[in-house]
Amino acid sequence: MTFNLTRRAALTGAAALPLAAATTPLLAAAHSSGVHAPIAHNFKLGEMSVTTLLDGSAMREGPKPMFGAAATDEEFAQVSEENFIPHDTLQFYFTPTLIDTGSELILFDTGLGQGGLPKALAAAGVSPDAIDTVVITHMHPDHIGGLMTDGKPTFANAKYVTGSTEYNFWSKMDAGNRVGDMVTNLVKPLAEKMSFLDDGGSVASGITAVSSFGHTPGHMCYMLESGGRQLVLTADVANHYVWSFARPDWAFSFDASPEDAAASRRKILGMLAADKVPMIGYHMPFPAAGFVEGRGDGFRYVPVSYQMMS
């Protein structure tokens, strides 16, 4: 199992690079509406302020091999039609999240490194130098790409947090593995300022790591709790708001261990549905926040409307 996971994780991580590299950010200038500009969306969670930041978006053709390789063409088309989306195209979103706890600014993931995140932060009125902590949910290119700018740390005053299993896996890759090389260039130079978490570890008061291995060997979600309210940052547990929810056992082609990823997907989505806890998903349609409803043997993603406006 370990050998297969290691080999597949390395291969699927490298395969994700063309997707990240070819992504064209769809970025708009900040409007006068401040943090409710199209690339930054803010709401309150108890005493915390939560802002989702659109780093970029991209259209892709031929989603079935990525999201439903084991399904028949007819089944994939049916699930798509039932949810009013085309079966032959998809739109990816890339959405880091900023948490203001009242005492520090904590950024979850850094995007593609193509300039989208700094623009979204500016729309939210935040300078990269103001970030106190950067948390990396996992080390795929679209999550670590923004750690460096012109060879220097983008977030010059930040400390860094990531999962120990995730770091240990990617940091030990032999030279020539494309994701491993990205980790060598973007993550390892920050290691002296980095701390490592396991399941249940605390980033800050009210922010707790939740293991959700499978998409990568050490993928983490994070539970936020403040003022009697909860929210889960699900990262890449579910990568599409229809196919990953309606058919949670369908493998996603970039999952390192499809079986473990499906188990994590069912665990996290099942908890969210049962407890009616909202989520922020990295690849959900912007502003990337919603709820989960159980439906048959799967789930349905319900995007937020006005109930999470500040």
From TrEMBL:
<feature type="signal peptide">
    <location>
        <begin position="1"/>
        <end position="28"/>
    </location>
</feature>
<dbReference type="InterPro" id="IPR051013">
    <property type="entry name" value="MBL_superfamily_lactonases"/>
</dbReference>
<keyword id="KW-0732">Signal</keyword>
<keyword id="KW-0479">Metal-binding</keyword>
<dbReference type="InterPro" id="IPR006311">
    <property type="entry name" value="TAT_signal"/>
</dbReference>
<comment type="similarity">
    <text>Belongs to the metallo-beta-lactamase superfamily.</text>
</comment>
<dbReference type="GO" id="GO:0016787">
    <property type="term" value="F:hydrolase activity"/>
</dbReference>
<protein>
    <submittedName>
        <fullName>MBL fold metallo-hydrolase</fullName>
    </submittedName>
</protein>
<dbReference type="Pfam" id="PF00753">
    <property type="entry name" value="Lactamase_B"/>
</dbReference>
<dbReference type="GO" id="GO:0046872">
    <property type="term" value="F:metal ion binding"/>
</dbReference>
<dbReference type="InterPro" id="IPR036866">
    <property type="entry name" value="RibonucZ/Hydroxyglut_hydro"/>
</dbReference>
<feature type="domain" description="Metallo-beta-lactamase">
    <location>
        <begin position="93"/>
        <end position="283"/>
    </location>
</feature>
<dbReference type="InterPro" id="IPR001279">
    <property type="entry name" value="Metallo-B-lactamas"/>
</dbReference>
<keyword id="KW-0378">Hydrolase</keyword>
<keyword id="KW-0862">Zinc</keyword>
